[in-house]
Amino acid sequence: MKADPHGVLTGTHFMDGDHACCEGALAAGARFAAGYPITPSTEVVERFAARVPTVGGSFIQMEDELAASITLQGAVWGGAKAFTVTSGPGFSLMMEHIGYAAMTETPCVFVDVQRGGPSTGLPTLPAQADMMQARWGSHGDYEIIALCPNSPQECFDLTIKAFNFAEEFRVPVMFMMDEVVGHMTEKVVIPPADQIEVTPRKHTHKSIEDYLPYGTNGDLVPEMAHAGEGYKFHVTGLTHDERGYPNMTPQTQDKLVRRLQNKILSAVDRICLFEEDRLDDADVVVVSYGITSRVAQRAIDAGRARGLRVGKLRLITAWPFPDKKIVELAAHVKAFVVPELNLGQMVREVQRAAAGKAKTFAVSHAGGGVHNPDEILNAIVEASRC
Amino acid sequence: MLNVLDETVNPIEPFLRSDRMPHIWCPGCGIGTTVNSFVRALIESKVDLQSLALVSGIGCTGRVAGYMKLDSFHTTHGRAIPFATGLKLANPKLNVVVYSGDGDLSAIGGNHLIHAARRNIDLKVICVNNLIYAMTGGQTAPTTPGHATTSTNPYGTFEPAFNLPHLLDAAGAVYVARWTTFHVRQLSRSISEAFAKKGFSFIEIISPCPTLYQRRNKMGDGLDTMKYYKEKSKVKHGAPTGEVGLTLNGEIAVGKFVDRDRPDYQTMMRAQYVETLGDRYLGDEVETECVCG
Lengths: 386, 293
Description:
The complex is a heterodimer.
Chain A (H helix, E strand, L loop, with lengths): L10 E6 H12 L1 E6 L6 H10 L6 E4 L3 H13 L3 E6 L1 H17 L3 E9 L5 E5 L4 H6 L8 E3 L4 H18 L2 E7 H5 L1 E6 L43 E3 L13 H16 L2 H4 L2 E4 L6 E5 L2 H15 L4 E6 L1 E3 L3 H8 L4 E6 L5 H9 L4 E6 L8 H12 L2
Helix pairs in contact in A: 1-2, 1-6, 3-4, 10-13, 11-12
Chain B lengths: L30 H15 L6 E5 L7 H4 L3 E4 L5 H11 L4 E7 H7 L1 H10 L3 E7 L34 H8 L3 E6 L3 H12 L5 E6 L3 H7 L5 H11 E3 L16 E8 L5 H13 L10 H5 L1
Helix pairs in contact in B: 1-7, 4-5
C-alpha cells in the first residue's frame, strides 16, 4: 500500500541522519515511539516527539531502555507501528526484549546509533561494534534482520525498508546506524506519499472461531490480530503452540524455533541488499557497510587509479549475512578487505563464508573516528600481492 | 451474567481457557481465589470483555494471563507495566489490567511501577503478594517481612521490606487498597471500584504460598493461613499508608487506603497538545487503515 500522506514530509531537505531516520519512520507509518535519551541517537525521538502530535499518534519517554523496548511492543499489539531508538549502553539493556519480539513475532524496529564501547565508551564518537550484538545479543536461537545506512538519504529510505521487513516477516529489525551517519547533514529527498511503498500489517481476515494466533499456511509468517478486536488471543514469551498456548515439549520447541529461523532464512535472497561496483574484473573486494563504506570508496578509487583491480561490495543488509554473494565472489577473487569500526566483527562472517577460497584482511579500528583511507588502501595493496 | 440457577456451570468458567486446565498452582495457593474475585468483579461491573486486555509478568501470578479467555499477554519479568502502557497509549479504548506478583512488580519491575503511578497511566494493577519468590523456589522478595526464613535467607531475613501501599501512595496512584485472600467479597468490590476509576489503581492481595512460605516458616497449611488472615486482619479504610507495613506474625491492615482523583496521563497529554498546538494537534489514536491497509 502507499504511505499515509500525513506522515510524509515531501520535499528536498538538508538534514542529518537522525532526523532523516525519524522522517523515514513517520513515512513508514510509525505512529508510536518509546525512548530513553542517549547520545548520539536522541535527535531521532526528539524530532518524533515534535512531529507526531501533528501527524496523529504519540511518543513517550520511558524511565529506562528496558521499559522503552517493551512499551513499543505493547503499542504494536494495540495496533500501532512502533519503534525505539538507542545507542550501545541502551541497546545492551534492550536485548531481552529483542528476544521477546522475536519469540512473540512482534513487528517492530530498534534503531541503534552506534558509538564507541564497551560500556559507556565514547558517547559522542562513532563505532560499528554492536554488529554481533545485533545478531546474537538475546539468548536462544532466533533470526533478525539488520540494515546499515551510509547516508542521511539512506537513513530515510532504509528506515521505511526496516518497517516493511518488520511487517512482512513479523520480526524485530535492527537499524544499525553509527554516530557519523546519524550526525552528518546532507541532502535528503522525500518523495510524495504515493511514491512510497509501505507494507501493511499481516492482519488476519479469519473469523474469531477459525483464527489460530501462531498457525501458518505455508509461508511461515502467522497472521496477527490486535487487542480489542474480540479474538481473545494469548501471547507469551514461553515456547508456545499454534494456539499461542505455552507448551514445554522438545517437539513444540523444535517446530517453533526452526520456523522463527526459517521464515527469515528462506527469504534471504530478498532480504539481503547490497551495492556492488567494479566486481567483474576484481582481484580484491572491499566489503564494508555504514560510514566505513564511504571511506572505503576513496580507497577503492585510489587503488583503481594505481591500476589495482579492486571492487566494492557494500552490505546494506548485514543480517542475515549474504553468504551466497561471498561464496560466489570467493570463487574468483584473491582476497577480501574488510574495514570496520570494531576490532573484527563482520570480517568473521566474510572469512566463514569465503571458507578458505579467498584470503581475508581485516582493517580494524577501535572507534572514536573513521579510518584514514590510506589504511584501507594499504590493505588493498597488500591483498593484491597475495 | 452470573447464572445461579444452572448448577452445572461454574460462573467463572466462561472466563477461563478451560482447555488449559489443570493450572500450575499448588494446593492451598491463593492465586486462584484472586482470579475468582477478579471475575466476579468483571461480572458485577459489567466490564466489556472485548475491550479488556490482561497483561502479566513472570512468576506464579504471571500465569493468570494465560488462563483467562481475554486478549492476554504474558510478558517478560518485571515489564508487564511498560507493555501495558504501550497497549493503552496505542489504543486508548482498551481497558488494561496488569495482573502480577510482588516480586515481578516491585523488585525487577519496581522502577516501572512507581513511574506508571507517577504518570497516572490509566491501568488497573492487581498485585498478588505472597511475600516470596514462589515460582523459583521460595527466595526472599522485597516484600518478605523481617525474620522470615526463605531459601536465600536460611537464617532469617534482615532487609527491611517494602510497604507497597505506602510506595504507591507516594508515587501518586489514585486508588490503593489491600485485602487478603480471605476477603473475597471485599476484594471483588475493590476491583469493581478500580474499574470505575480513571488513572493508576493498585490493589494488593496478601496471598498464601503454603508450599514455600508458610511451610518454611511453620505457619501451617492453607486453612491455617485463612484463620491467620481472619484473626489478624483489621479493616482500616483511609489509614495513613505509612502505618500499614506488614510484619511476620502481626496485624494485617486491610481496606481502601487511597481514593482520589487527578487527571490521567492521556488526559494531561491531550490538554497540553491542544493548548500548545491548537488545530495542528491530530490526536493520539492510531488509524488502523494506516497500519493494516
